[in-house]
Specification:
Length: 211
């Protein structure tokens, strides 16, 4: 039980040497399929201003920065270990101004309204204290026409793994669709699913139509 809580907390907010060197490798390998699906679903254009919430080791920050010739990718993450790892991986893009990384909690939404063309997050919504309020506030920092994408693994599959349910909260694709449409007031809700090697990967997206 104690081990399950420790591991679950490392997923939520990686810390120390274990977080920096072991969890980051774990995320890079174990979450690659879902991260690839989210990146494809983003359909970036070269000018997009993008935010990744909970970037972990910063793999998608790097991919986005390499793609965006005239745009910018920003990232926010709760963990000092992940910020250090992602900074190291993206040093070149940070120095050129194409990537910006900050330590922080997305639930405090430290960005101004109408800032981003696209916002995405992968494997992080399980840990949010108040997802409906967070999604509502996040929709405000999207530009009109902007897109929010949530990548996650399915509730029924995740509940079979021995993780601490006081740390994790799992969702079905219908739960996430409802969060985006009802609390985010987003339209054009789209669900993409892909059977991965171990889990089913889901990407649920919504578009901000109103201003
Ligand atoms: C399980 S890891 C996923 C990392 C990466 N997105 C991936 O799919 O491999 C969760 C990440 O989200 C971050 N995180 C959790 N809650 C957060 C919050 N409220 N605001 C910002 N980052 C958060 C953690 O620090 C951690 O780096």
């Amino acid at each position: 039980m104690i081990l399950s809580k420790y591991i679950s907390n490392q997923y939520r907010k990686p810390s120390g040497i274990i977080g920096r060197f072991i969890m980051s490798r774990f995320f890079e390998i174990g979450n690659a399929e879902l991260n690839n699906l989210v990146f494809e679903t983003l359909s970036l254009t070269e000018q997009d201003h993008v935010l990744e919430i909970g970037f972990g080791p910063g793999t998608l920050i790097k991919r986005a920065a390499e793609f965006l010739s005239d745009g910018i990718i920003e990232g926010i993450d709760l963990s000092e270990s992940m910020v250090a790892t992602a900074l190291k991986k993206n040093r070149k893009h940070i120095n050129s101004g194409k990537a910006k990384i900050q330590l922080g909690d997305i639930e405090k939404v430290p960005f101004e309204n109408n800032r981003f063309d696209k916002i995405f997050t992968v494997n992080t919504i399980y840990f949010w204290e108040n997802p409906s309020t967070a999604i509502s506030k996040i929709s405000h920092i999207l530009k009109p026409g902007g897109k929010l994408i949530i990548g996650f693994h399915d509730r029924r599959e995740m509940e079979k793994i021995s993780l601490d349910m006081e740390v994790f909260r799992f969702y079905s694709k219908d739960n996430i669709s409802e969060l985006l449409s009802v609390h985010g007031s987003l339209n054009e809700i789209d669900i993409i699913s892909k059977r991965g090697k171990h889990n089913t990967c889901y990407c649920v997206s919504g578009t901000k139509i109103n201003t």
